[in-house]
Amino acid sequence: xxxxxxxxxxxxTAFRNYAHLSVAFEPKHVVLSGPNGAxxxxxxxxxxxxxxxxxxxxxxxxxxxxxxxxxxxxIHATLERDxxxxxxxxxxxxxxxxxRRVRINGTNSNGDELLDLCRIIWLTPAMxxxxxxxxxxxxxxxxxxxxxxxxxxxxxxxxYEKAMRQRNRLLEEPAGSQTDAWLTAAExxxxxxxxxxxAARQExxxxxxxxIAERRDPSDPFPTAVxxxxxxxxxxxxxxxxxxxxxxxxxxxLRDGRYRDRAxxxxxxxxxxxxxxxxxxxxxxxxxxxxxxEQKALLxxxxxxxxxxxxxxxxxxxxxxxxxxxxxxxxxxxxxxFDRIDTVGGQAFxxxxxxxxxxxxxxxxxxxxxxxxxxxxxxx
Length: 380
Hints:
The protein is of the alpha/beta class and about 375 residues long. The protein has 2 domains: about 1-120 and about 315-380, 3-Layer(aba) Sandwich (Rossmann fold), CATH 3.40.50; about 130-315, RecF/RecN/SMC, N-terminal domain (Glutathione S-transferase Yfyf (Class Pi), Chain A, domain 2), CATH 1.20.1050.90. It is built from 10 helices and 15 strands. It has helices at about 40-50, 60-65, 135-150, 155-170, 175-215, 230-240, 245-255, 260-265, 290-315, 330-345; strands at about 5-15, 20-25, 30-35, 75-80, 85-90, 100-105, 105-110, 120-125, 225-230, 275-280, 285, 320, 350, 365-370, 375-380.
């Protein structure tokens, strides 16, 4: 099956272990095989920078540029979609030091416009501990899923964090009439943004649950995930309480909690305290209590369901970056995975140390060998 959209070319300059790279891709999936440390994940990280944010590693820009380079890094890609070609450039090599710039067809962009061209979804080994790690990691994962279907969410979430930091600074000031007036203004803004974040997350959770239910198949080798965004305000939203009422409730809780928050040195109520909870439906068990293999299967199923939802809502089949995706799956589950990826309809980049793990893809993929930052195209 030919992907509905695909990257046809990628050029890197001073990016990680690639001093210079130019590679062409066919309109099919891409399998990158080779030893550990060869640069497979670095190449996929470069692709992840074709979306807003800090890429799949969430790296500082200074750490992305090749060691010893003085001019920053640059990424250029050509995206083919609906019969049109789009030239995308990003990096620090042609921008101010320490800042990432984006150009689309030669025109400067604010970066959010990348979501008008493509949606990029990834799954990496670093995410294997998602269910047992910090709640902040699960919230970040949730917000990234929201962003794929709601491009405004990235700015919304960033503005919420900025408003919360402003309130926290005000809480450090001595209490008084002027400080209280500033706090009231800050809390009003924070509550408006917070209620919008809560609503967006609840919408994503509901849509994702619906598409999981729609695609449920008893023969599916990937377990079904049951999702919930937990918290007092989140429960109110899930029960149908209006966004305006939640906003007013959050304003009151922020006002009443000033003394407590001053003592704690931070804001203790709001969507930044929510928990993204996942359960294994068939076993009726929290994901955190499942075996390592079950957690991996849950995560893969969840990411694939989100990819399908992204296509349904945005009208764009996402580009999927699946790092070491086949390493711990048996042959039957690998074959099912590749079929599910085909169903989504987007181009998938997959990595592994052994090409044989991807033999079930047959001619549906382009095979590329990666060694010491050098790429060699292999025959199907």
